[in-house]
Amino acid sequence: MVKKENIWKFNEDDWKIHFDDKELLDRVCDKFNLGSVNTIYYEQGVLSEATSWDIIVPDDKIEEVKKFLEDKA
User: Strand pairing of 14-19 and 52-58?
Assistant: First the structure.
C-alpha cells in the first residue's frame, strides 16, 4: 500500500511516488509503462538489499496510478 504522504509533486510536469513494496512497484511500472526506478533506498546498510523505491509519474498518468493504488489498498 502507498500512503498519501508518499505521493508528492516533484516538478512542474511530474510526481514522485515512494514504494516499500517491490511487487506493487513492479505492477505499477508494468501497467503504466513508467520505465525504471528513479531512487533506490538501502536503509539496512547493505547495498545488495534495497528496502524502498521512488518512481517518477508524469502528470498525464498520475490520476490513473493513484486510482490503481487506491483499489489495491
Answer: antiparallel
